[in-house]
């Protein structure tokens, strides 16, 4: 069969996952896509949607059929900009870059950071609880990534201040070419210029992760031209993702006080509760994969040369995998959720992200009985999910 007829015979949907309404409340649309089939053609975007848990996992684990080297974004321009970074390579080239990035993020290497993170978490929570009312997005969730993580990365000062803005705009450009994407592109160019011209040897903090990349170039482990895009590997995903996870966690505990009581009564539940937050409100909702050869996903054939959007956020709400998936249940232990991806590109920063979340919510559990939401403004973003503002009072 020709590619066109393979697409014609696939289930399809006119659902638009990138409309404002869908981005703010994706759950009914995701359910529609999951029910439509294991892979669903979206004519408006000319891409398949993989929305079921098993379909997402399959694509993420089979890198030879679903490679990343043609980019994991939904538009060609962005796939060109990030060509050659860790996220967008495969096989031995990917392993070489990933081995360098992951070094400071392995549990052993994070031992020193743990002490600092726990102490910082305690002091920011003390301060905010004394205040009584605060913005859980900008004052609580931002704190550890902006103070501790950006310092560990060790970029020159001017860039550190802009990392949050850059990262958020960068992720908008992962989406299909819509207004949000075109609006964000100029900011992304600044970020690339900074990574190329400023994050250079001698300018980054001694002993930092950024210096680790330069050292790896000197040792011949990775090519010098990979340096700027590897800086982006740290600058892009290390802050907003964790920040949005933290604000979503506050929202979920505020709206499910019985679940907050459970973790307060039994702090051993906290690690599972953090996984449940990531399952319910995956900070990264979707990336995509090129389809390198015809592949049958549970009866739907995706032709070589097509592209599939992998909806981590939908797979995590798949009723075929997680019973009663829209219920926030801290006792669920969803260790195999997809919020950190899966397969060869699974998140290298997951140990750090979990450590930050655990430190903050352990400190909160010791000091806060209830969160009351005063104002909640979710972020409207092509890819990311979380809160721009989340004003709460704690008691
Ligand atoms: C809650 C926080 C986080 C979430 C939800 C998250 C999510 C993800 C996801 C879904 C992927 C897989 C992409 C794919 O399948 O193509 C990924 C990869 C990655 N993440 Fe994270 N991330 C988080 C925190 C971090 C942190 C703190 C860092 C760095 C310090 C980081 C660095 C990376 C890198 C470098 C990759 C690319 C890995 C590769 O391609 O081999 N992430 N992340």
From TrEMBL:
Pfam families: p450
Protein's UniProt keywords contain Metal-binding: yes
Keywords from the UniProt entry: Heme, Iron, Metal-binding, Monooxygenase, Oxidoreductase
InterPro entries attached to this UniProt entry: Cyt_P450 (IPR001128), Cyt_P450_B (IPR002397), Cyt_P450_CS (IPR017972), Cyt_P450_sf (IPR036396)
Family as reported in the entry's similarity comment: Belongs to the cytochrome P450 family.
Designated name of the protein: Cytochrome P450
Biological source species: Pseudonocardia alaniniphila
Origin organism lineage: Bacteria, Bacillati, Actinomycetota, Actinomycetes, Pseudonocardiales
């Amino acid at each position: 069969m020709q590619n066109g007829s393979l697409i014609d015979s696939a289930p399809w949907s006119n659902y638009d996952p990138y409309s404002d309404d869908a981005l703010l409340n994706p759950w009914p649309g995701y359910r529609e896509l999951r029910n439509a089939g294991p892979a669903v053609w979206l004519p408006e975007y000319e891409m398949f949607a993989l929305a079921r848990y098993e379909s997402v996992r399959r694509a993420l684990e089979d890198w030879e059929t679903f490679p990343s080297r043609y980019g994991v974004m939904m538009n060609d321009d962005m796939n060109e900009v990030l060509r050659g970074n860790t996220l967008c390579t495969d096989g031995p080239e990917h392993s070489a870059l990933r081995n360098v990035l992951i070094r400071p993020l392995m549990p052993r290497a994070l031992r020193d950071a743990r002490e600092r993170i726990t102490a910082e978490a305690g002091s920011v929570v003390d301060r905010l609880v004394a205040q009584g009312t605060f913005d859980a997005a900008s004052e609580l969730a931002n704190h550890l990534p902006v103070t501790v993580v950006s310092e560990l990365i060790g970029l020159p000062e001017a860039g550190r201040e802009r990392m949050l803005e850059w990262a958020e705009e960068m992720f908008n450009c992962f989406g299909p070419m819509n207004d949000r994407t075109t609006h964000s592109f100029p900011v992304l160019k600044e970020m690339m210029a900074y990574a190329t011209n400023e994050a250079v040897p001698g300018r980054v903090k001694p002993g930092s992760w950024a210096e680790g990349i330069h050292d790896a170039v000197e040792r011949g482990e990775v090519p010098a031209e990979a340096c700027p895009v590897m800086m982006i590997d740290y600058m892009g995903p290390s802050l907003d993702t964790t920040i949005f996870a933290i604000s979503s966690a506050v929202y979920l505990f505020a709206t499910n006080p019985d679940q907050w009581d459970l973790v307060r009564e039994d702090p051993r539940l906290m690690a599972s509760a953090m996984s449940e937050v990531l399952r319910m409100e995956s900070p990264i909702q979707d990336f995509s994969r090129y389809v390198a050869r015809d592949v049958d996903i549970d009866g739907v054939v995706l032709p070589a040369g097509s592209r599939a959007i992998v909806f981590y956020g939908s797979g995590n709400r798949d009723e075929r995998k997680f019973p009663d998936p829209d219920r926030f249940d801290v006792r669920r232990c969803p260790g195999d959720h997809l919020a950190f991806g899966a397969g060869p590109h699974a998140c290298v920063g997951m140990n750090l992200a979990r450590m930050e979340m655990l430190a903050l919510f352990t400190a909160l559990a010791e000091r806060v009985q209830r969160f009351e939401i005063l104002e909640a403004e979710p972020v409207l973003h092509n890819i990311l999910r979380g809160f721009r503002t989340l004003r709460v009072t704690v008691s």
